[in-house]
Q: What sequence folds into this?
């Protein structure tokens, strides 16, 4: 008799496994004692396997669970009580295994046509610092530096070598780098909205409508790869005389940077906004809300490198947990091959 109805119940079964390795020693006829060596990775009397280290790194760097709570979680769920120091040591080990990824992504970045750049302040050991990001739809590289400006650019050593198109939020420093520039229209739309609401300027409303309509036109035209504008012939003939009205400042800035504002119309590889960079930095704000600050600069660098790896894997549709776990086994190079095979 066939069943008339069926129900499914999904469960998770946690199985703890301990593998013990033993060595034997003995004397041969030559009188020398010989002893078998332990397998690679089995160094101390007790250590944690790749799955445990992968889970710890995943929950800490991707799900942003603080070390104290994570140590408690590992004891409650898996009966593997860890100390905060062990959690930090596991993340530090993962950071060491990310050295190949870091060198590969730095090389890949310099070959890109378009790069989104941004920076955000963080707190490190009670002092201020910054996370800097260079990214596009395929790659993300986040790095820590105590400074925001050109000192950071020189020390990080990426932006000053880049020869492509930079997308940014009009921070003056960025205009010193790259071959062309495109400014974030998301920022301009917010400024235009402010002028509309506070001063009721008609030109701001019309400019906002124009930018939004132009973006919609680009979306519809990308399939045909059409060029919408070859050049623009609007000029700002006014001269700045002392302090000016905020609305006039915005108008003059948009006129001065008109080619950068509308570059997305001439080159469809250029995004309308700098949201790509802002999204890559967003989790640092979650980290700050959860933990308050980073305890050390090494901790900030560890977070930045892990987030670079995670964001890049997400952009390639890879499984985040498997990619992190592979840092602690022999499959790490296979993950890097999947990431960078299309970037050479």
A:
């Amino acid at each position: 008799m066939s069943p008339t109805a069926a129900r499914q119940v999904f469960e998770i079964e946690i199985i703890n496994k301990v593998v013990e390795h033993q060595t034997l020693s003995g004397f041969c006829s030559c009188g020398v004692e010989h002893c078998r060596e332990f397998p690679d990775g089995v160094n101390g009397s007790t250590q944690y396997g790749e799955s445990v280290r992968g889970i710890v790194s995943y929950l800490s760097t991707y799900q942003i669970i603080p070390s104290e709570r994570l140590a408690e979680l590992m004891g409650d769920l898996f009966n593997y009580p860890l100390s905060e120091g062990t959690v930090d040591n596991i993340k530090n080990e993962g950071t060491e295994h990310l050295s190949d990824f870091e060198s590969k992504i730095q090389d890949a970045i310099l070959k890109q046509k378009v790069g989104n750049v941004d920076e955000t302040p963080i707190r490190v050991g009670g002092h201020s610092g910054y996370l800097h990001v260079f990214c596009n739809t395929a790659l993300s590289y986040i790095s820590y530096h105590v400074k925001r400006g050109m000192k950071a650019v020189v020390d990080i050593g990426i932006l000053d070598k880049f020869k492509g198109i930079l997308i940014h939020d009009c921070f003056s420093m960025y205009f010193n780098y790259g071959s062309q520039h495109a400014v974030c229209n998301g920022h301009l739309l917010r400024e235009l909205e402010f002028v509309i609401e506070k001063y009721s300027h008609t030109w701001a409303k019309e400019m906002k409508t124009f930018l939004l309509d132009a973006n919609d036109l680009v979306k519809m035209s990308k399939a045909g790869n059409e060029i919408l504008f070859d050049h623009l012939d609007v000029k700002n003939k006014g001269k700045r005389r002392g302090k000016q009205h905020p609305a006039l400042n915005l108008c003059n800035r948009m006129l001065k940077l008109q080619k950068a504002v509308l570059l997305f119309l001439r080159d469809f590889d250029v995004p309308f906004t700098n949201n790509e960079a802002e999204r890559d930095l967003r989790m640092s704000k979650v980290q700050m809300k959860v933990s308050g600050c980073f305890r050390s600069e090494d901790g900030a660098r560890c977070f930045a490198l892990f987030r670079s790896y995670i964001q890049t894997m997400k952009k390639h549709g890879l499984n985040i947990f498997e990619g992190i776990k592979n840092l602690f086994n022999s499959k790490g190079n296979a993950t890097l091959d999947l990431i960078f095979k299309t970037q050479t």
The beta strands are 25-27, 33-35, 114-124, 127-135, 140-145, 165-168, 180-183. The CA atoms of residues 138 and 315 lie 6 Å apart.
